[in-house]
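Justification of computing resources. Each target in the renewal requires a structure prediction run like the one illustrated here; the chain below, 511 residues long, is used simply to show the kind of job we budget for.
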Amino acid sequence: MKMKKQLYVLFTLVICVFTSCEKSDDHDAGSSAPSYVETEDYVDLGLDGLLFATKNLGAKSPEDFGDYFAWGEVSPKSYYDWKTYKWAEPTTEENYIYERIIFSKYFYPDNVHPDYAFLQPEDDAATVILGEGWRMPTFEEMSKLMSCEYRRAIKNGVFGYEYIGPNGNTLFLPSCGIIVEDVLINVECGVKYWCSDCATGNVAPIIDINEYGGVWGGKETRSLGLPIRPVRTEKATITRDLKYNVLERYIEQAKQLLATMKPEDYSVTSYQSLDNAYKHALDIRENALTQQQINEAAQKLRLAITDLYLLPKPSDIKAVDLGLSVRWASANVGARNEDDYGYYLSWGELTPKPIGYYRWDDYKLCKEVNEDDNAYSKFTKYVTNSAWGEVDNKTRLELEDDAANAYLGGNWRMPTSEEAQELIEKCTIEEILRRGEHVMKVTGPNGNYILFPFAGYAYWQDRVVFTVFCWTSDLDPSFPAHAFGFELTGFQNPKEWTDRIDGLTVRAVCP
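Resulting structure tokens:
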């Protein structure tokens, strides 16, 4: 499959973008779940007793960036370089390159001094500022986030990442970049956090959270300004009354939803999932024997609330005249607004599926499946070669298989490759930041525009974001297991092929 992901490397000061954006609700209805013990200070993710602070050191809220520190310093400052670094003593006034710096503490070029395996308490900003019990995390402790589920999230207009612990509790980390000298950079490219493991040479260990939310180990120049996420290891006291805290909150939330919502306004699958998870949670509350059962029920109910999908109304989608041969929809099929991703659909199917079901044996138009590798064998429709079934030489979706027409009705349909090519060749396409999210703005010759969110695509076991990839109505006649989409990120391509089973978004057109 010929796919491309676009990486963002934007060295610019964009904090004003985040702070000036219109405030919006969190994307995840359950993203504000507290730990089992009521506290605004820390959250227990179920990671062997490790408790994470709910906000960066110096921050007033979880979405606030907080203060930035050089490694081993206990106060924020206005300028971050070797000249201002506490533990560096230059040999000359004018030369601060690494080879000419004398470090007065924590300098071991090849290995860690046994007496200083970690920052000492007097040099640990978290301990000095917050008091005994709080400290900078070790690399091993921060690495525990690798075992958590994660996703991109927006909290009060600030872009970041939400990590979901094994017990269902969540932790929000804002994408807040680093400070080089007096400039905040890479705000859009993730966040790096200091670890307390001892520095070697002129660098110190960090956890690097990239723009996808992935957690990686690394090192950074110790004189730069990075945020700190404090931790503590005293275990919270879990009593019989408190250990149900998270589950009770989700039960109450689900109860209110089920009492006020109209089932016909939501997708049948998501409504049934919520109803089933709610009944299961009630049963667990009455009969649970272990904390694990409580955690699993809370997690299941949280996901059901998160995945609850309000069906869009056709009237929510507007036909926008860009000055082209057809008008383009203002939002994706299944989207409630232009920022919403909408449905992920296999080519020629009308129903979105859960992640993990974009497979040949779940594909409506696949007649036979090779059980050894789950590969296609025969198709029932849109076949140009007898090796893949009975030939019908149909290479363009009929309306009965067109998701745009099925959901929007009237003259709406999926675009052809030629219409996608016209969109790309005659419009101005630019990446912009909208409410903390990257979107592609497509402006037509007449000045009107539409927006495409970075919805990505779904495949059999996962979902890839950070791209704009939508279906056309055209089959690849040379290889009927493939169909064409169009891509608006990287090198704009009006005929990007991929497997028919993959879940792509649909942007409709009409006369």
